[in-house]
Structure formats: C-alpha cells, structure tokens
Design a protein that fits this description.
The two termini are 37 Å apart. The chain has nine helices and seven strands. The protein has helices spanning 72-75, 81-92, 102-116, 130-137, 147-153, 163-186, 188-196, 224-237, 242-255, and strands spanning 10-17, 29-37, 44-51, 96-99, 126-129, 200-204, 211-215. It is an alpha/beta fold. The protein is globular. A hairpin with a 6-residue loop joins strand 6 (200-204) and strand 7. Residues 202-223 are annotated as: Disordered. It comes from Brassica napus (Rape). This is Exonuclease domain-containing protein. Residues 9-183 form the Exonuclease domain.
Length: 256
C-alpha cells in the first residue's frame, strides 16, 4: 500500500540517543518525538513521541544527570525501533524535515536505524536545519547557537533534552528569531545598528573553562524591558505608514 505524502507540511523532529564513549561504539536511539506543523500559520497539526528500547539495553545509563532524563528503567518496557518504524516512517516520509542540527545528526541516525532493521528509510521533500539557518541569518548573538543557548537568550526556559519538549522549544526559538529579523528588516537603520553594536558579556565554556564574549541584545546597564520599549517607540513612529502596518499585521498572524 502506497503511503500518502504531504510535501508542503513541516515535521519538526528530534532524537535522544546514547552518547558513545569509546571508539567504535554507535549511537542508539532512545526517544523519538515529532510535531507536524502547518507552514502558513505554524499551527501544530499532530504530534507523536515514544521511548525506544535498544537491542542491547546495557548501553543505557542506570542514572541520568538530568532531571527527567532517560534511564535504563524508563526504556526497559519501551517498544523497539522496529516496533515503531512504520509510524515514524509515516510521519517523516514526503514531508519537509525541520530540526536543530538535523543534517549532521538526526537525519543520519534515522537512516542508520532503518538500515539496521533492513527497511527503506523515509525521505524528506526538503530539509530545514535551524542550526545552519539561524547561524547564517541570526548570527552569533546567542553564543554557540545550541538550542539551550538560544532558549536562554529568549527566556524560553531550560532545555529538557526530551524529544517532544525540545521540538516545541525549537519551534518557539524560530518564531522569536523570525520576529527579531522581521523587525530589523522593517527598520534596519534603527534596529540593526543598535543590536549589532550591543555590548558583550562574558560566559564560561564548559569544554575549556575559558571566558568567552557573548553578544547580548541590550546595552551594558540596560534591560530587555528597555529594549522592548525602544522597539515599541520605533514602531509607533511608523503608524502613519499603512503599507508597513499591513505587513506587520500579516507577519504577526504568521508568527503566532
């Protein structure tokens, strides 16, 4: 039976996996989560998530360093990848795939998992990798551009490293970035210069424990509230421009 495809729908997905600590070890998928999104309104149409038990359950840690993290006990009674492969295939195949760093990680892991069970892997109608997209369009304002850094930048909370939660956080980060970029493109002279000349704050890298500068969207001694008010003041000056107002109204409806 031929599976119906939806080439204009976007499916945001995320995988949680084991982390190899020895040469030759593989990644094992422990959780899959996805939401299907209407590209015109960014509305969530459907969602699915499942824990996955690897063939060798000993590769899963007995304890997790994260609150609510995935442990051996949590996946002990979970279905195998083969058990949920058909469902995952139906969600992914023929849709636009979206996610953070999916080109180099999640897409590769999906193909490996389907190859391991001897089945054809799903194929996307397109790929949106928010890591590459935001690094190119949004710059390094949020530091290393990891999802946790972007979420902290916009005050969206702490990344949970659970598939469905991370997928929804990814979508919210994109909405916030899109809003900022839209405002900058609307009033580039006022906004781009102000944010590009913003001060640096010092953050500590966990990998090398060195201090590194990170750009913030407000000036030293200022506040995010002050910046928000500045944006509102700039927009109020544009009230007489009907074409601009129509564009802002349309953008707001898409980004809600």
């Amino acid at each position: 039976m031929e599976i119906q495809t939806f080439p204009s729908e976007i499916v945001f997905f995320d995988l949680e996996t084991t982390v190899p600590n020895k040469t030759g070890q593989h990644f094992h998928i422990l959780e899959f989560g996805a939401i299907i999104v209407c590209p015109r309104k960014l509305e969530e149409l459907d969602s699915f998530t499942t824990l996955i038990q690897p063939k060798d359950i000993s590769v899963v840690s007995l304890r997790s360093s994260r609150s609510g993290g995935i442990t051996r006990a949590k996946v002990r009674d979970a279905p195998s990848f083969e058990d949920v492969a058909e469902k995952i295939y139906g969600l992914l195949h023929g849709r636009i795939w979206a996610g953070h760093n999916i080109r180099r990680f999640d897409c590769v892991r999906i193909k490996e998992a389907f190859a391991e069970i001897g089945k054809a892997a799903p194929e996307p109608s397109g790929i949106i990798d928010s890591l590459g997209l935001l690094s190119d369009k949004f710059g390094k304002r949020a530091g290393n551009m990891k999802m946790a850094s972007l979420a902290a930048y916009f005050g969206l909370g702490v990344q949970k490293h659970r598939s469905l939660d991370d997928v929804r956080m990814n979508l919210e980060v994109l909405k916030h970035c899109a809003t900022v970029l839209f405002l900058e493109s609307t009033l580039p002279n006022q906004l781009e210069a102000q944010w590009q000349s913003s001060s640096k704050i010092m953050t500590r890298s966990r990998s090398n424990k060195q201090i590194a500068p990170r750009a913030m969207p407000y000036s030293k001694g200022g506040s995010l509230g002050k910046m928000t008010q500045n944006v509102k003041n700039l927009l109020s000056k544009a009230q007489g421009n009907q074409a601009l107002q129509n564009l802002i109204k349309h953008s707001h409806s898409l980004l809600r």
